[in-house]
Automatic annotation (TrEMBL):
Keyword GTP-binding found: no
PANTHER family: HISTONE-LYSINE N-METHYLTRANSFERASE SUVR4, INACTIVE HISTONE-LYSINE N-METHYLTRANSFERASE SUVR1-RELATED
UniProt cross-references to CDD domains, sorted A to Z: SET_SETDB-like
Cell compartment(s), UniProt: Chromosome; Nucleus
Organism, scientific name: Cucurbita maxima
The organism's place on the tree of life at top rank: Eukaryota
Gene name, Swiss-Prot/TrEMBL: LOC111465365
Annotated stretches, region: Disordered: 66-90
UniProt cross-references to PROSITE patterns, sorted A to Z: PRE_SET, SAM_MT43_3, SET
Protein name: Histone-lysine N-methyltransferase SUVR4-like isoform X1
Length: 543
């Protein structure tokens, strides 16, 4: 690879995590001089040395600005010392997902995101969260809006930058100049902006920070997932709201979820299988739920036929796809004295994955959801007034598993009581009712009418925003550890190809005209041409 290509690749890596080219180029040039043109030390660990040097340079600028009103001089030596493992640093430099992308960040202290959760033992339910005496509550909205007090603040300058195109000044004929001179020349010509770090006054620095601050943390999950998930605010100094990250669902108190080997019969597992069930000559018992054929391809994607069937049922449900309760528990919670007629519950297709009683291993192609998140995700502050959102940093093909919706498992009564205690000023996520198979479950008791709430305990799915009808994610119920379909996992798959940096959205299936719902519908900001929020449309018409 030529030196020009190496420079462009380095700038592309730093640009992907929000560092402007004109600020990183002089740092790169100095590193090349320091290392006598040795790119290996710069490229290793996804350009960690380069980013280390950049952030240390920024810290020195801030210190100099406080002392003398001037930023650090460009020609001062750059420290190349790396933080040792276990040392407390103000920045973290991880690799997220693919080797071609690096999410590099300044790490602020997450004092409000608690590492532990208070639990009590329960022989019936496993992990149970003690009910809070002071459950705060919230005005329902389509997105998670920021909480200023959730984290301590740190800031860094983030100026606009220009990206080289094929017709820009990056193109350069072959040269016989020395290697270091070529590198300096390419760095200078890769952008029309200046390659010098100009000293500016403290007032100028503070003024820029107000409008171009970049708040970034490298791992929202705090090590709970096998991949790191960063969060970034490129528009201001707001931090993500307070919550506890959990990678798996946790029972709040009364939900009846019984997980045991004895409940799984021999014809509901594949104890005689080994290795990868998808490579067997014929499908095993775990494929019965999906019509005798597995839902996944060997590449880990949903089969297109199965995905299209799920999408069709959600977008254009037929009468046979809906189940109507004689005494709907949701309507009864709204008005116990005179409940309205059931509005219908969509009976959806399930995926059944292999589990612990099966003979296959964890790399079996029928264990996609339970292996957890594997794609590169980032929480970011949206520009459309939706608050926080979730996006992918890599291209995702159609049918890719993104994540599952994780939260507290509550009964409908517990959720109703929690909503009644909320003040209206607190921000929260939209809960999910686990009603995908109520029609075949018979009469369910209150402790079997379950839902998921990620307001206080949840995973990254709590940041996925709503979009009416044409969202790029679809939620599909997945059976893993129990055959009882009143509890299941809710997994998100891409409904089409999704490009890198595109926001991930899903349809909450909200009835915007339901005035009696305990969780009031928000004003939809999805921007879809199929938006169902008639109130907003009427308001826009009046304006």
């Amino acid at each position: 690879m030529s030196s020009k290509e190496k420079i462009i690749k380095a700038l592309s890596s730093t640009r992907s995590i929000g560092i402007p080219d004109d600020q990183v180029k002089p740092i790169l040039r100095d590193l090349l001089k320091t290392y006598d043109g040795n790119w290996k030390l710069i490229e290793e660990d996804n350009y960690r040395t380069l980013v280390d040097a950049y952030f240390e340079h920024k810290e020195n600028e801030e210190l100099e600005g406080k002392r003398g009103g001037l930023m650090h001089d460009q020609n001062s030596p750059i420290s190349l010392k790396r933080p040792r493992e276990g040392e407390q640093q103000n920045q973290a430099l991880p690799t997220i997902g693919s080797s071609s992308h690096k999410s590099v960040v300044r790490e602020d202290k997450m004092s409000e995101v608690n590492a532990g959760q208070e639990t009590t033992k329960s022989t019936q339910h496993g992990i149970v969260i003690r009910p809070s005496e002071n459950l705060s509550s919230v005005k329902p909205i389509s997105a998670i809006h920021p909480d200023k007090n959730a984290f301590t603040n740190g800031n860094m300058e983030c100026n606009s930058y220009q990206t080289c195109s094929s017709s820009s000044q990056c193109a350069r004929p072959l040269s016989t100049a020395p290697f270091q001179d070529q590198c300096s020349s390419y760095i200078c010509k890769c952008s029309t902006s200046s390659d010098h770090v100009r000293p500016i006054t403290r007032d100028q620095h503070n003024k820029r920070n107000k409008s171009h601050s970049l708040y970034h943390m490298y791992d929202l999950t705090k090590g709970a997932e096998k991949v790191k998930i960063s969060w970034v605010n490129e528009l201001g100094n707001e931090s993500i709201p307070k919550f506890n990250y959990i990678p798996n669902n946790i029972i709040f108190q009364n939900a009846n979820v019984s997980i045991s080997m004895a409940r799984i019969s021999e014809d509901e597992c594949c104890s005689s299988c080994s290795g990868d069930c998808l490579l067997s000559s014929y499908p095993c018992a775990c494929a019965r739920e999906t019509g005798g054929d597995f839902a996944y391809t060997q590449e880990g994607l949903l089969k297109e036929e199965f995905l299209n069937q799920c999408m069709s049922m959600g977008c254009e449900p037929k009468k046979e796809h809906l189940f109507y309760c004689e005494d709907c528990p949701i309507e009864r919670l709204k008005n116990d004295w005179k409940p309205e007629r059931c509005k219908g519950h969509l009976l959806r297709k399930f995926i059944k994955e292999c589990w612990s009683k099966c003979g296959c291993d964890m790399q079996c192609g029928n264990r996609v959801v339970q292996r957890g998140i594997s794609c590169t995700l980032q929480v970011f502050f949206t520009r459309e007034g939706k608050g926080w959102g979730l996006r992918t940093l890599n291209n995702l093909p159609k049918g890719s598993f993104v994540c599952e919706y994780v939260g507290e498992v509550l009964t409908n009564t517990e959720l109703y009581d929690r909503n009644m205690q909320r003040t209206g000023n607190e921000r929260h996520t939209y809960p999910v009712t686990l009603d995908a198979d109520w029609g075949s479950e018979g009469v369910l008791e209150d402790d079997e009418l379950l839902c998921l709430d990620a307001t206080y305990y949840g995973n990254v799915a709590r940041f996925i925003n709503h979009r009416c009808s044409d969202a790029n994610l679809i939620d599909i119920p997945v059976e893993v550890e129990t055959p009882d379909h009143h509890y299941y996992h809710l997994a998100f798959f891409t409904s089409r190809e999704v490009k890198a940096l595109e926001e991930l959205t899903w349809d909450y299936a909200i009835d915007f005209d339901d005035e009696d719902h305990p969780v009031k519908a928000f004003e939809c900001c999805c921007g879809s041409g199929f938006c169902r929020d008639s109130k907003k449309k009427r308001k826009e018409t009046l304006l």
